[in-house]
């Protein structure tokens, strides 16, 4: 990352070399981590699954919009369950064209869901060959971080050792508040939303689990069994802190969206500690 002057309109190899030498001497150059071919390939696969998830969501919206437009409303409380899918199979239209549209929308949803499941399986199959697979397993010690969230965050961040402290990682993921201060005046705004939106969205979704009381569910216990005690201690300490902080911020009158974003920011700190305590496999 090389700083550039706003009014500089002349670019030659000689001027670039001189400028880089001056910036290097002034310690103004920021190092950039470059992923290797294996890391970039797996990151592409993770992003392809995220794209498939968005396509599946759109397909569901199209189907539900079509049904709502024709007053076909599901009587149950929750959609996309087994009961909802059985209800879809029983919906009938009098005109053949409308029935064709319904069947096509249902097939589009099924194809999109099959694509997501297929890509998820391929990620799971390729993960053991990745050098950062131990980090993915260790990060899953955190509550709200399952397999997909863990592999997404690790794939987007890469090597956690390049961050000297968790605040740098929080800023890298765009979870720190923006600020515009000058003199005696100061104003803090929403989060900067810098970096990977995919990783940030996955962390915020996982942060919603901390609105419940601190506990170790059977699914989380199964993930913890093969992990070192040091990693388990960090994860439990983080769960106690974040569950308590969620209740404290809600009691202070903060909106739930703001509270969950703050919890996601703290999650990053504990993820950083777990990742730094885990030694990646040799590529």
Describe the structure in brief.
The chain is mostly helical and 283 residues long. The protein is built from eleven helices and two strands; from the N terminus they run H-H-H-H-H-H-H-E-E-H-H-H-H.
What features would you describe in this structure?
The chain is mostly helical and 283 residues long. The chain folds into 2 domains: 37-128, no CATH class; 133-178 and 190-277, no CATH class. 61% of the residues lie in helices and 5% in strands. It is built from 11 helices and 2 strands, in the order αααααααββαααα. A hairpin with a 2-residue loop joins strand 1 and strand 2 (185-191). Helix 2 packs antiparallel against helix 4 and helix 7 crosses helix 11 (256-277).
What labels would you give this structure?
283 residues; mainly alpha; 2 domains; two-stranded antiparallel sheet
